[in-house]
Specification:
The structure is a single chain. The chain has about 90 residues and is α+β, with helices and mostly antiparallel strands. The protein is about 15% helix and about 45% strand. It has a 5-stranded antiparallel β-sheet.
Amino acid sequence: MTEAKKSTRAEVIILVCNLTFGRGFHFCSIEKLQGTDADLWFPLADPARLFEAVESVMQMNGIAHNVTGLDVIAEYPTCKDVRVRYNAA
């Protein structure tokens, strides 16, 4: 009988901002999701579905097994900082 692989809990900060062409989010410290010039943004069509959008990007890129929570840690007029808690893939 083999032991199931255990997920590692982790967290990352994302920026959620109003951009020139709509709302988007950016990962601050996951190199693979930052883009080559650290300025990669993912579109966010529905701000109410931020959890699902972030989880989808992280799963599709092999970063997370699942997202367990989001916490707003700072808010500004056109942007907010959000802590993403997840189980690493």
